[in-house]
Amino acid sequence: MLRNMLRSMGVTLHRSMILQIAVLAGFWAVGEATVRLTHLPLPGGIVGMVVVLTLLGTGHIRPAVVRRGAGWLLAEMLLFFVPAVMAILDHGELMGLVGLKIAAVILAGTVMVMGGTALTVDLCYRWRMRASAPEAGHAA
Amino acid sequence: MLRDPLFAALFWSAVTIGCYAAARLVARRWRSWWTSPLLLTPVAVGIVALSLHTGYADYIRGTHWLVLMMGPATVAFAIPIYEQRALIRRQWPVLLVGVLVGSTLAMSTAFLLADLLGLSHTLQLSLMPRSTSTPFAMSVSSDIGGLPDLTAVFVIVTGICGAALGELVMKLMPLRSSLARGALFGMGAHGAGVARAHQIGGEEGSIAGLVMVLAGLFNVLMAPVVAALMA
User: Which of B42, B68, B94 is the last residue of a domain?
Assistant: First the structure.
């Protein structure tokens, strides 16, 4: 009887995106509580993510249980960024020349970061592939 | 009407979500850098807020719950990372080197370019953590003496620039591996870049997500060192 109930709960969880989001939010709450209690210098979401990764890795939960909810959260993530941008409402001083300079710093900096990172990773990757002989040829 | 806190919360949440939904439709119809929902939505919400004489404090009081959703979204990264575990297990040293180089580049370019253009020290410090995702960047910013709410704005601008420019940078360089393409977006444009990388490919998206998380962790760990250097 109990087993049947658990199984039907599992089926509901599989189908309901809202429930899956609630489960992920639950893990976030656990992470947030851990950070508060232990004074870890990390965002609660990261601690929650590590908990979920550990549970996935040890086979305690299957990815299918939260996959749809996770997919939705990741697809709509840009929405959660929007309110923070509105801080600009209180910084009218950034609208003039200073704003243009900041935009230039961000634009140029970001291109350098992207180019530098991608080049480093690609060179390291090729070097490793060459070093580790042909059998690992098509790793990525 | 907007004086009532509950009504104001509902109103600003509805405005934000409505503008976002509209911006997504526009982005689907005309795909270009200027149709990014990350650019169009704040502009539209900003116009509404300015015309109703609403400041940031009043706006964020009603929409803070949306910012909190970033927490569950961060947890959600566990799924794509877990699904690419084989690739990650094989290539973690490469990714680690990428994060090290990328984070150093991010901080030093912000520092030097801001210096070059004569921006104030506070702005300089607020710009430095801009390449990591918002929760990390805000905590690093306050650690090193910047203004966290300004950093949040710079993080988003970085996301818009990065998601827009990423493909251009990608085309200009002879990148062979999905590893390098994922790292480019995850390091250069955090969450917005990860979203973009997922559109390019599953592997790219997962790598980008992992690189973003690693970069955030690395930056938080390095913040005390950077703060000592800046003092």
Answer: B68
- Alpha carbon distance B230, A40 (integer Å): 23
- B206 interface with A at CB cutoff 8 Å: no
Same domain, B42 and B142: no
Q: What percent of chain B has pLDDT over 70?
A: 99
- Which residues constitute the domain of residue B27? 5-68
pLDDT tens readout for residues B7-56: 899 999 999 999 999 999 998 888 777 777 888 999 999 999 999 988 88
B127 and B208, same domain (yes or no):
yes
- B151 three-state secondary structure: helix
For residue B214, which of A110, A63, A121 has the smallest C-alpha distance?
A121
- Search chain B and give the residue with CA nearest A82: B42
Cβ atoms of residues A24 and B76 within 8 Å: yes
- State the pLDDT at residue B22: 94
Residue type present at position B16: T
Q: How far apart are CA B171 and CA B149, in angstroms?
A: 34
CA angle B162, B136, A23 (to 5 degrees): 100
pLDDT digits (tens, 9 = 90+) for B191-213: 888 888 888 888 888 899 889 88
Instruction: State the ipTM, two decimals.
Output: 0.84
Q: Between A and B, how many CB-CB pairs are < 8 A?
A: 317
